[in-house]
Amino acid sequence: MFRLGIQSAEVLPVPVIVVGNITAGGSGKTPTVIYLIELLRRQGYNPGVISRGYGVDIKGCVLVSSGAKACDVGDEPAMIMARTQVPMVVGPRRVDAANMLLAQSNVDVIISDDGLQHYALARDIEIALLDGQRRYGNQCLLPAGPLREGLWRLDSVDFVINNGGPAYPNEILMSLIPALLVNLNNPLSEMFNIDNPIVAMAAIGNPQRFFNTLSQLGYQLANTVEFTDHQAFSASELNSLSKVHPLVMTEKDAVKCRDFAQSHWWYLPVNAKLTPEFDQALLSRLQQVAQTKKGLSYGI
């Protein structure tokens, strides 16, 4: 109905960048959002973020505060806030979330964490992420395959970012660069002894990617445990996993465990790495959009 003009998308007075995908499951959106926040800040922009807050029941919209808990705003917003302290609003209707963000914060660019298919919100730049290992599966739409929209949708986005490669023509390669393990209770703790066998757990879209990364870094995996994406944890079930060996998890999972973390629980931070060509192209496109929107009246 949006394509046919039966329903109209709401246009905002500031540029809107949507970071999403056409497949179900994780593809690296959260590290990409953090990368964009840092890139835009270096260029003098004041970015803000809107997100759905998957896995939690949010009524209306919620302004995400510093130290927000994953059980209140969702794991990805909590992780983004912990990393960047960016102005952020979560809510099921991204138009409402964006309006609250504009009312509550002095932002000049809005980044939508996911929402490629949320057509009620007009967007100026679309970034589609894909898992370079799994790509588009059998290329069928849900429920027969992993696609939310057909591959034709990629013809209309501004950038297709391939997480992990190999990158095909017209795709931008992104790498996730792991850092040293961080202790949940004491981030300043001494470096983890890599000779210690570990239990690795993950509640993300592609847990095997996380386990493979740990193996490639030289960690000895005594056991690996997969949970469903966005799953909440209890202290008892995680304690049962880490009776013998240290427990290592993703950063997104760590924000859900801060209140009951044990001294031998660790997480692996990763940082997105993109090409200078992508940075230049994105900033050039953003500058064009910002200039066009100067003096643009609110809404349509």
Architecture overview:
It catalyses: a lipid A disaccharide + ATP = a lipid IVA + ADP + H(+). Transfers the gamma-phosphate of ATP to the 4'-position of a tetraacyldisaccharide 1-phosphate intermediate (termed DS-1-P) to form tetraacyldisaccharide 1,4'-bis-phosphate (lipid IVA). Its EC number is 2.7.1.130. Belongs to the LpxK family. This is Tetraacyldisaccharide 4'-kinase. With 300 residues, the chain is of the alpha/beta class. The chain has 2 domains: 16-175 and 273-293, Rossmann fold; 180-268. 26% of the residues lie in helices and 21% in strands. The protein contains 8 helices and 14 strands. The chain has helices at 29-42, 70-73, 75-84, 94-104, 207-216, 235-241, 251-254, 276-293, and strands at 16-20, 47-51, 62-63, 88-90, 109-113, 125-131, 159-163, 172-178, 182-183, 198-202, 221-226, 247-250, 265-268, 270-273. The strands form 2 sheets. The chain has a 9-stranded mixed sheet, sandwiched between helices. It has a 5-stranded mixed sheet with strand order 9-13-12-10-11. The chain is globular. It starts with 15 loop residues before the first strand and ends in a 7-residue tail after the last helix.
